[in-house]
Amino acid sequence: MDSTQLTDIVEQADARLASTTPNQEIQAALAQNRPDLWAALASNPMLYPELVSWLYQLQDDAVLAALSGRRTCASPSTMGTAAQSQTPAAWVWVADGAPPQNAGHAGAEDQSFGWSPVPLIAAAVIILLVIGGIGTWRLGLFGGDDGRTPSVAAGGSDPARTPSPSDATDEDAKNEDAKNEEPDRDAPTPAENEEEPNRDAPTPAESNGSGSGRSGPGAGAADRVAPCARAPQFAVRSVSDQDGELEVTTEVTPSCAKGDVLTGAANSIMLYASSSTAGGSGAADMVVAYADFDFSSSPLVIPPDGRTLVLRFAAGYFFRSASDINASSAMISGDIDRSGASDAVMVGDDASTTAIAASGAGDGQAAEVFAADNLRWQADHDRPIAVSGVSGYWVPQVSSKRLGLYAEGMTWSSPAIMQEFLSLREQFPQALLLFSDEWSVFDAGGGWWVTIVGITFSTAEGANAWCDSQGLDGEHCFAKYIDTNGSSAGTTRNR
User: Does residue 330 sit in helix, strand or coil?
Assistant: First the structure.
């Protein structure tokens, strides 16, 4: 996510976004720039620990109340077991591959909420480092107890070069006999023998704890890789509609230098896209697909240089078609499940493209909210098309559903209504979604999500004849007159 996208999200953010977003970049930016949303942000169950601590330091009554009432999220496998619930590791995968910023100190320079031990600790560390450095210099200069002045050939300091940690190894420091032995004058100095440390390598807490990883073509089936402390980054490359599924192609990059492995059964993944209805442009701030993915039976090994992964969201798990998603600004986030196997074997084809289908619907309540938001988005997107294209004409109406309706052997939810519309649009590309309460030609207060086909007819008979030609019965297709004015009287013609 670039700075422009992040700025747009922060400026347009409301309490709902602040209380639900799992994106650490967005959380940090809201903490730093939107004090009016601190209380809502504090209620977010997916805050990372540093930000929770920062919010506590504010000592704001509303913020403290929100933190006290905050409920941590749990994976579906632990849902309802309050005694065992833990705050999940919030992770974010962005289109540009940038890791989330450490927001634990966002805006700290602008706040002074009591005494902090950090400056004193930092000062003490600096003093100890200075004392240790002086002692090390004196020992190297005078050669310890043997009274010899070290030379460059003997492993001493080169006056023409600034000393670095690479000038000595742990083995040199621990080998007491080496002090009194004459060094090999032909051996290279430590500076010649060692490479400059990799400044971009992960910290020990982030490093892969087992296995050698795969560093080159010679690595084989004996190489093992363990889960990293931090989640990998997923960069969205493309989205497409395939056989009733939404396929999201991603590039996965591990946070550890030696690679990563996903082994858990309940990885809840959310695909974000723009909430703008103008061609899908804008920042990724709205969940358009949500599902669990299971890697327990076939752990996903991520080599050090990454791999391609195709995520398949089945019917009911996505709420917008690929044609309405801008892949260049899409983003993936979610909760990673680090349970399962402790490591996995890395084999030669681990860099190949892998596809995996969703295994479940994740949190049902969250899916209901996401689907309802997308129903609203679709109606807003289609309204100007209906106003300009079909107003004043008869059209085929092929569905009308509302939340809680029992029909066709099921109770209709927002995800089900959304999926029916997407299926109808796949069958009839001219399909449009209307919300009945926004059109006077429907009875007021019904709260119906109505699907029409944007093929216009001057008479009701023409629209009903089209229904006949499609083989649709009278319950699933009839003539409807669409207009922005007038009443509902006489606007429906059944077959």
Answer: coil
Q: Determine the residue type at 304.
A: P
CA distance 209 to 226: 6
What is the mean predicted confidence (pLDDT) over 329-336? Answer: 90
Give residue limits of the domains in the chain.
3-86, 118-188, 224-362, 375-493
Q: Are strands 354-357 and 90-93 parallel, antiparallel or unpaired?
A: unpaired
Q: What is the mean pLDDT of residues 232-261?
A: 93
The 3-state DSSP class for residue 358 equals coil
| Cβ neighbours for 234, distance < 8 A, ≥ 6 positions apart | 93, 250, 251, 252, 309, 332
Hey, what are 370's tokens?
Answer: 């996401």
Lowest mean pLDDT among 1-5, 202-206, 448-452: 202-206
> How many whole angstroms separate alpha carbon 25 and alpha carbon 121?
28
59 neighbors 32 (Cβ within 8 angstroms): no
Mean pLDDT of 178-189: 42
The helix (H) or strand (E) run that includes residue 426 is: helix 414-427
Across the range 443-469, mean pLDDT stands at: 97
- For 370, the 3-state DSSP assignment is helix
Q: What are the structure tokens assigned to 110, written together?
A: 């602008």
Two structure tokens written together for 386: 């209906």
Residue 279 is encoded by which pair of tokens? 């061609």
* Predicted local confidence at residue 131, as pLDDT: 53
Q: Model-level pTM greater than 0.70?
A: no
Cβ proximity of 313 and 248 under 8 Å:
yes
What CATH class is the domain 224-362? mainly beta
CA 353 to chain centre: 20
- Report the distance separating Cα 227 and Cα 470, nearest Å: 53
Angle between helices 364-389 and 414-427 (to 10 degrees): 40
Q: What is the pLDDT of residue 409?
A: 95
Tokens of 445: 């207060």
Q: Could you read off the pLDDT of 161-176 as tens digits, one per residue?
A: 333 333 433 444 444 4
- Sorted by sequence, the CB contacts under 8 Å of residue 200 that are 6+ apart come out as none
Q: Is 280 exposed, middle or buried (0-12, 13-18, 19+ CB in 10 A)?
A: buried
